[in-house]
């Protein structure tokens, strides 16, 4: 067992995070080990790799050579002498904490929070669900770490189920770490609210609808054939929709159909077998009514282009993507003029597209332009976004600038509804932002982003590099930092229900970002290519 403490003197309610209770769930151990809890500023104790014998033997149970193996997470209200020392150590840590998060993993599931049906847990579920975190009620397990924690009035306990038992892709691991961090932050921010509602009975009217999770047990023996296995965990099913069929291969006939038990439900776990016998728990389903009411069979993508064309028209015509103070906007425009002049002198005839009304042309100071630059009017920010700020006979370029960083960020406007829909389908907020930011940037026809950074650093960044950075392949890199980061701007702006995002690019000072940084080009590279 590995025990670490972070920010113990923090003013936040103390959190206990446990993992590795089941020895075959090594993915939960890895996700917790790689989470940077120190940077959160939260007061956290981590008890990782708890079931050392089980982890060594790769078994769910606690393997004790002197006694029968036991499930450590079914040992908190019963006497099991051989587990007393480990259980007592966990109980002591729980009693000195305010929030307890027991992290587990399943062979194939959505990242979810698992809760019981007690009044306190219904309050927790209501608050987490309203925050967009998928939660499932399941009362079948009452001898667990979570149930023990919630028996203590001042403690909030949850179980987190992560996707994947052993080795998982870097993308999946990043999503799990982010999901865990979201749960931590939300519980800390909501702790006082949960306690108030629990102690005062403020939400005592929350109705207990029973379990949100059920296992489908196979009645027959045969080969499993799925309707669409690739979308098994990415789809919201309706009642009686066929998920898979069981075939008797000797007669080549279907002998059983496995169907969805409810409207608006998802598969959160699947037994990874191709052949089943009677009694096999093949699939686990969860109700997602609260955050799947309008998402039935929703596709991850949204119709970005048409929405953006309309919404970009109403953005003030300073410059697309630059809703900033006058100083920043002025600097950005100066950078566009500078690059247009450079192109005219080094590449050939050049256009500078400026978003302005027909009566604003006379306000431009044309004396700043070099010979060979033609200033043209872009009617809307969308036209400017699609075609870029500066155009030559060889390429189109969008000019980005930063007065604070070596490399500028790239801005994107994405639909709030698209983010919500993707999160209802199990995506994290960061994953949803990345998916829709990529979709948004795919609408542009520019070839290069020209980044003017502080200290007059100029980098030429191929647009395809940014798309790769936001792709699944980009997510697989060894560090999330290595592929940049998508953030909502500090003063989160929504324009007709659009989120204003910044795609932060790899900076020269971060060594782990070399994979992308080395693909940046220089102005001299453009001369070599197009002169």
Task: Report on this structure.
The protein has helices at 26-34, 52-57, 84-95, 119-130, 145-151, 170-200, 289-292, 304-312, 326-346, 381-387, 416-424, 429-441, 463-469, 472-475, 514-517, 523-530, and strands spanning 2-6, 15-19, 44-48, 99-106, 112-115, 135-137, 156-163, 213-217, 222-226, 242-248, 253-259, 265-270, 275-276, 281-287, 350-355, 373-378, 390-392, 396-401, 410-415, 448-452, 458-462, 485-488, 498-504. By secondary structure, the protein is α/β, with parallel strands linked by helices. It has three domains: 2-200, Zn peptidases (Aminopeptidase, 3-Layer(aba) Sandwich); 213-292, Beta Barrel (OB fold (Dihydrolipoamide Acetyltransferase, E2P)); 304-530, no CATH class. Strands 1-3-2-4-7-5-6 form a seven-stranded mixed beta sheet, with helices on both faces. It has a six-stranded mixed beta sheet with strand order 16-15-17-18-20-21. Strand 5 (112-115), helix 4 and strand 6 (135-137) form a beta-alpha-beta unit. Helix 4 packs across helix 6 and helix 11 (416-424) packs across helix 12. The chain is elongated and about 85 Å long. The termini are far apart.
């Amino acid at each position: 067992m590995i025990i670490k403490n972070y920010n113990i003197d923090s003013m936040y309610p103390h959190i206990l995070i446990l993992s590795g209770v089941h020895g075959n769930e090594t993915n939960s151990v890895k996700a917790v080990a790689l989470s940077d809890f120190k940077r959160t500023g939260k007061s956290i104790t981590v008890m990782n790799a708890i079931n050392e014998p089980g982890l060594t033997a790769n078994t769910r149970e606690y393997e004790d050579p002197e006694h029968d193996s036991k499930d450590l997470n079914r040992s908190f209200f019963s006497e099991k002498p051989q587990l007393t020392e480990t259980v007592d150590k966990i109980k002591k840590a729980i009693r000195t904490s305010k929030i307890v998060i027991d992290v587990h993993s399943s062979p194939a599931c959505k990242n979810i929070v698992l809760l019981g049906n007690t009044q306190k847990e219904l309050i927790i579920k209501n608050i987490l669900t309203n925050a967009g975190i998928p939660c499932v009620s399941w009362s079948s397990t009452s001898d667990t770490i979570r149930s023990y924690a919630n028996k203590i009035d001042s403690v909030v306990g949850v179980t987190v189920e992560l996707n994947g038992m052993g080795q998982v892709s870097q993308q999946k691991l990043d999503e799990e770490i982010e999901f865990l961090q979201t749960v931590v932050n939300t519980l800390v921010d909501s702790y006082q609210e949960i306690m108030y509602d629990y102690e005062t009975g403020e939400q005592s009217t929350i109705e207990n609808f029973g379990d949100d999770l059920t296992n489908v047990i196979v009645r027959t023996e045969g080969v499993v054939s799925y309707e669409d296995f690739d979308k098994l965990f990415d789809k919201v099913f309706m009642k009686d929709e066929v998920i898979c069929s069981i075939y008797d291969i000797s007669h080549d006939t279907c002998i059983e159909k496995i169907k969805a038990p409810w409207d608006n439900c998802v598969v959160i776990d699947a037994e990874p077998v191709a052949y089943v016998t009677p009694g096999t728990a093949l699939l686990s389903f969860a109700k997602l009514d609260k955050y799947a009411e309008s998402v039935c069979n929703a596709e991850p993508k949204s119709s970005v282009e048409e929405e953006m064309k309309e919404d970009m028209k109403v953005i003030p015509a300073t410059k697309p993507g630059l809703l900033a103070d006058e100083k920043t906007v002025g600097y950005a425009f100066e950078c566009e003029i500078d690059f247009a002049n450079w192109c005219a002198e080094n590449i050939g005839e050049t256009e500078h597209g400026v978003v302005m009304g027909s009566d604003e042309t006379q306000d431009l100071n044309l004396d700043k332009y070099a010979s060979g630059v033609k200033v043209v009017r872009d009617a809307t920010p969308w036209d400017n976004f699609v075609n870029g700020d500066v155009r030559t006979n060889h390429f189109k370029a969008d000019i980005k600038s930063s007065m604070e960083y070596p490399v500028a960020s790239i801005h994107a406007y994405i639909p709030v509804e698209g983010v919500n829909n993707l999160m209802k389908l199990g995506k994290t907020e960061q994953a949803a932002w990345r998916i829709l930011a990529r979709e948004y940037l795919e609408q542009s026809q520019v070839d290069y982003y020209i980044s003017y950074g502080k200290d007059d650093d100029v980098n030429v960044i191929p647009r395809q590099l940014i798309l790769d950075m936001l792709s699944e392949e980009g997510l697989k890199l060894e560090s999330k930092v290595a592929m940049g980061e998508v953030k909502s701007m500090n003063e989160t702006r929504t324009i007709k229900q659009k989120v204003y995002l910044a795609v932060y690019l790899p900076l020269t000072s971060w060594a782990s970002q070399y994979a992308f940084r080395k693909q940046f080009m220089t102005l001299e590279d453009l001369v070599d290519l197009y002169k």
